[in-house]
Amino acid sequence: MALDMAKYRQIFLEESTDHLEEISRALFDLEKEMANAEAIDTLFRMAHSIKSMAASLGYDAVADLSHRMEDRMEGVRADGRVRSQDELALLFRSLETLEAMVAAVAKDEEPPAADDELLSQLAADSSDPATTELASPDPVGGEPKKVFR
Amino acid sequence: MARVLIADDASFMRQMIREIIEPEGHEVVGEATNGIEAVDLFNELSPDLVTMDIVMPKRSGIDAVKAILAEHPTACVVMCSALGQETLVMEALQAGARDFIVKPFKPDSVISTIAKMLEKSED
Fold first, then answer.
1. A5-123 adopts what CATH topology?
2. CA angle, residues B60, A40, A113, in degrees to nearest 5
3. Residue B104: its chain A contacts at CB < 8 A?
């Protein structure tokens, strides 16, 4: 059986636009409080949802980037906090790239592939100090913490 | 043919499952957008089958399956999973979910999985 994919493309645009707004709000919340559990959970779920929709429509670049964001957020969720300002900046960059991809879909264009550096940074082991700075000051106060896993 | 409850926080996925199964004669009796609604609607509607997303707000699909099966041990629940969720799928199956379908959905696969589950339920 064949599904009406034009209808699903429209739903994708509506839902992913909402999801990107939620991701944006969640990131601003995490900027204020890196251990904000609700924001961490929201970001994880929104990336997951965008991934599933994009994969259904064959938007491989969107699915790939959102999948890597989801995986990254799974690690953040396990640790209970965004682990550094660098990691937060990486997530903001991922959001900007996803926004550009969805904007391309809205214009009936093929979503541009994310740059390899962004994808590899998202996939990098966050416990590796060469790829993610972990010695970060707590933005809501307190002493800088060195985190080892 | 079955009375089906669809649990998924994404309207996209709920509509897609509905569009795949309704032509097969199944009736969608309810749609839940989170794990709490899934449990509540199951209790209210007593569907023959539930399609349950794993990642949902308020209460996960895994927790919802456990809650449903604790009260209704013969409930027929199929998990909707994405690539990379193998561990969660295993947890759901161990909790009593009957089977799983993988996103992105392939209509023929969804139809055959549901048909197979309903056959087993009748045995």
1. Four Helix Bundle (Hemerythrin (Met), subunit A) (1.20.120)
2. 100
3. 52, 55-56
Please give the model's pTM, rounded to 2 decimal places.
0.86
Q: For residue A51, what are the contacts with CB-CB under 8 A and spacing of at least 6?
A: A62, A63, A66, A67, A70, B82
> What ipTM was reported for this prediction?
0.87
What are the pLDDT digits (tens) for B69-103? 999 999 999 999 887 788 888 999 998 999 999 99
CA distance readout (Å), B53 to A44, B31, B88: 15, 12, 11
Complete domains list, chain B, with CATH: 3-122 (3.40.50.2300)
Residues A57-102 have pLDDT tens digits of 999 999 999 999 999 999 999 999 999 999 999 999 999 999 999 9
How buried is residue A149: exposed, middle or buried, by Cβ count under 10 Å (0-12/13-18/19+)? Answer: exposed
Which residues in chain B have Cβ-Cβ distances shorter than 8 Å to A41? 57
> What angle in degrees, to the nearest 10, is found between the helix axes of B11-21 and A5-32?
150
Whether B82 sits inside 8 A of A56 (CB atoms) is: no
